[in-house]
């Protein structure tokens, strides 16, 4: 039902036919009697041929041909938990130990993996004190920065503007 919203009547009909075929496959109604192994004919318009990475091509085709902004709403994007990105919602308080996720200022000891303790919180800046490495006791100011995910297999580009830290446990 979600796929048919906002589409023309021919697209809705094709989507309904695909949904019916997919349900029939899932329920074992396609391919004849099953003793565990069944050959199923896949319609030609669904087959990706001559590809070195068919899964990536499928995702790439779907996103470029049918990018649905409702499917990738801010709520969906904010809920993604990806390598190299802090969560969308970062709950901090004074005194909490945190770890940097990016190299900010290597000369002053603000490197990926450096541990800090929160001194004060602002809307756009966090004041913290380094509690690891060679610069223990040095105070630093951390601002929000654009952070793209480090996973290159995500089929679309986006970034979060967030403090490059994660809470240490």
UniProtKB/TrEMBL annotation:
InterPro entries: P-loop_NTPase, Pif1-like_2B_dom. GO terms for biological process: DNA replication. Transmembrane segments: none annotated. It comes from the Eukaryota. Pfam families: Pif1_2B_dom. GO terms for cellular component: replication fork. Residues 77-121 form the DNA helicase Pif1-like 2B domain. This is DNA helicase Pif1-like 2B domain-containing protein. The lineage of its organism: Eukaryota, Viridiplantae, Streptophyta, Embryophyta, Tracheophyta.
């Amino acid at each position: 039902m979600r796929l048919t919203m906002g589409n023309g009547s021919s697209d809705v009909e094709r989507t309904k036919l695909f949904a019916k075929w997919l349900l029939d496959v899932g329920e074992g109604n396609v391919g004849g009697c099953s003793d565990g192994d069944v050959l199923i004919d896949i319609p030609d318009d669904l087959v990706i041929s001559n590809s070195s990475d068919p899964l990536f091509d499928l995702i790439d085709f779907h996103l470029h041909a049918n990018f649905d902004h409702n499917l990738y709403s801010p709520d969906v994007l904010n809920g993604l938990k990806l390598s190299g990105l802090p969560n969308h919602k970062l709950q901090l308080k004074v005194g909490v130990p945190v770890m940097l996720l990016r190299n900010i200022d290597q000369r002053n000891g603000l490197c990926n993996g450096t541990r800090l303790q929160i001194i004060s919180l602002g809307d756009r800046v966090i004041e913290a004190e380094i509690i690891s490495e060679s610069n223990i006791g040095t105070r630093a100011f951390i601002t929000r920065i654009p952070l793209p995910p480090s996973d290159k297999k995500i089929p679309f580009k986006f970034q979060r503007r967030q403090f490059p830290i994660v809470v240490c446990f």
